[in-house]
Amino acid sequence: MIGKRLLAVTLLGLGALGTVGCSEREHDAAIQVEGAELTRCGDLRADTGVLQRLRESDESLRKALAGGRSNAVAEAHKALDAGDFRLAAATTETGITTEPYGVQCRVLGGLSPWTVRALAFVAADKAAADDELPDDKVMGFGRRYNAAMLADPRYPYADVCRATDKAGPVPPLPDNPDAGVVQPFGFAELGPARMSHGLGAAARRGSVSDIRVLLGRDAAAVDRTDMFGLTPLAWAVAYHRWPAAEALLRAKANPTGATCQTTIDRQSPLQIARIMRWYAMIRRMRPLVSEEEFASLRQKPRWDDASLIEFNHALTELKERYERVLRRQAFRRHDLDFQVDEQGNTTECTMEPASVSPAFDKELCGLAVEIVRWTPARDAFGTRVPESAKLLVGFGGGN
Fold this sequence. Notes:
three-stranded antiparallel β-sheet; disordered N terminus
């Protein structure tokens, strides 16, 4: 039953995308008919017509699988004919994966529901061990379907999703939180690409000549996202292709991605450059966005959950010791304002407004400085910086 529920949620994720609105950059556009503004977002996932065709295709596939009439190769070719490049995947307790069906996709943050055709639920402990899974009707279909997709020259993402026996070990993420992610998407070893694979494939390969030809054919494609939510500029950044990124920027590519995206989206070109710690590219794109958009990349300090639990226990004990004094004031909320250094240590604490007991306030701040630890703040370039932080506490009136 849990597998059916998860599958339903995954497939319904396609429908939910149809209601996603555009960012503030499009709020001044007049909506003439339902969905008209959405299709101007440059994101096929917000196109209600595309979503409807995907839903119908998935429903047809489910019926064919249930009736034993499915032919994996034929279904793969049907999808490719329709420009549907989603692979067969399984849902697990922890997310979505194509590995039970013989494919490894390297996408920062994992696969999203709209990037796959979810077939079944697989226990997480077996999701990456396909040799242990039975080759039943669904499993066999998924493996043959994905093999047919990857083998077809029309499939444009052979550098993002690859057969598990050809994928090699997954490069580990850096242990040092200050180090950049070298390859946030895809495989470093690129195969050949066709012009028909589009602008994103050309950007991944750094082919400036192909980029110019493709933009000459369709200038609007410069900020069009693909099924992974990345624009051509985002792909150029992810693959560290400076000349390709430069060519796209000269063609007015947006550093914040498609109209429906924001600067802080994981797939936005600026955010990808920040994750990679590619400072030169961040500086190149900075003048092309507003100060507000660039400032949104800043990260405030975030408390460490374990230390906050410890602080809550200490606060409870402290309030019990000062209960008679604190009863003199009505219950109210107080801000604990902190200064946090680059290492995540609290260096200063003040409370506003003050309570009726200066001794209580001093002890409370002393406990906070001693106990609470933070994930350091980072500026728009991803560099650790000192920053202020805040916690809210409530007491008084015997509470």
